Amino acid sequence: MSKVTVVGAGNVGATVANVLAHKDIVNEVVLLDIQGDLARGKALDTWQQSPIESFSTRIKGTEDYKETAGSDIVVITAGVPRKPGMSRDDLISTNAKIVNAVTTSILEHSENPTIIVVSNPLDVMTYAAYVNSGLPKNKVFGMAGILDTARYRAFLATELEVSPRDIQAVLMGGHGDTMVPLPRYTTVAGIPVTEMIEEEVLDGIVARTKKGGGELVGLMGTSAWYAPGAAAAQMVESIVKDDGRIFPCCVYLDGEYGMEDIFLGVPVQLGKEGIKKVIELDLNEEEMELLQESENHVRGVMDTYKEMQNK
Ligand SMILES: NC(=O)c1ccc[n+]([C@@H]2O[C@H](COP(=O)([O-])OP(=O)(O)OC[C@H]3O[C@@H](n4cnc5c(N)ncnc54)[C@H](O)[C@@H]3O)[C@@H](O)[C@H]2O)c1
Ligand SMILES: O=C(O)C[C@H](O)C(=O)O
To answer: SUPFAM superfamilies in the record, alphabetically (predicted)?
Structure first.
């Protein structure tokens, strides 16, 4: 019974809308972009897939925020992606303006939506959407952890020659090269990963995961979209179904892990109210140090954002 708006009909936004339509779990998907014809074209193309793939989700493309009225969930993918040689943080001056403008326009037409931010630099763009929307902390959060964990799981599956489905893992921290994959919380069909792989090889996989986004930027000249789009759609699915699933997401920390007034990736339970519960793991000293390093990095980018807002 839900209406979902996806803002930004580029690589990631169009993928979110397309994957979501295939899941057949919401009534309507609105795909909005400042390039209205691009959004209309991608929505029409997806709708024409429906007879082949057997889904009935209505999907519409537009540049007009009036069409987004009454959205239950909004996924913000609007913004520029990085090019080779850039970091995600280099996108801040362009994307902060875009995310702030999008958030304001969304709130003019939907009263109390759940907002999932995808635009980079992710942790700080999620903070921007939170502050700018005035929505409660359980209603605004970011997608990164599902993607970063998926990369980690995929690399492990290749190395171990097992199904990626059998690999469960937790990854925390900011969506940047300081992210913190946690081998101590990684299992292969319930078996600790450390019993299945040599330490050196595991270290290599952790290092590759941290730079997983950059690897794809190097290969394609722009950033990834299939896995990111599927990850955001999975978050929408678990909110709509309210099925109690647990994922790492970028959420507002209000004392959890000893951190305050910051958005950072931690394991949470999603539900119809957005963030149902933040899960606090009993991290050891080394893991906590890595998380704090990541926190410090994100705080630096937050400072840049705050300075921009004060100008
Ligand atoms: N969180 C993550 O894990 C993750 C993963 C992949 C990409 N991203 C980020 O997502 C963003 C989008 O990436 P992409 O590959 O889809 O880029 P893209 O260039 O393919 O698409 C971006 C779209 O945003 C639109 N846009 C720009 N300003 C807008 C506005 N004010 N209102 C509405 N639409 C607007 C553009 O017209 C374009 O179609 C980037 O910032 C990228 O870094 C994040
Ligand atoms: O790497 C990027 O710039 C895009 C995204 O954050 C990703 O991890 O794929």
So the answer is: LDH C-terminal domain-like, NAD(P)-binding Rossmann-fold domains
Same domain flag for 133 and 149 = no
Phi-psi domain of 170 (left: phi exceeds 0; alpha: psi -120 through 50; beta: other) = beta
Domain's final residue, options 142, 167, 190: 142
Binding-site residues, in ranges, read 8-13, 33, 82, 88, 95, 118-120, 151
Give the domain range for residue 149: 145-310
Compute the Cα dihedral for 214, 30, 127, 174 and give only its sign: negative
Separation CA 183–CA 199 (nearest Å): 10
- On the question of pLDDT at 215 being above 90, the answer is yes
Supply the angle between the helices 145-160 and 212-220 in degrees, to the nearest 10: 80
Provide the domain count of the chain: 2
- pTM recorded for the entire structure: 0.98
Domain boundary among 100, 127, 142: 142
Specify the CATH number for the domain of residue 17: 3.40.50.720
Q: What whole-number distance in Å separates Cα of residue 24 and Cα of residue 166?
A: 25
Percent of the chain scoring above 90 in pLDDT: 99
Q: Is the ipTM of this complex over 0.95?
A: yes
Please tell me whether residues 138 and 156 are part of one structural domain: no
Beta bridge partners of 181: 171
Distance 266 CA to ligand 1 centre (A): 23
Reduced 3-state DSSP string for 45-91: HHHCCHHHHCCCCEEEEECCHHHHCCCCEEEECCCCCCCCCCCHHHH
Residue 213 scores a pLDDT above 90: yes
- Residues flagged as binding site for substrate: 82, 88, 120, 151
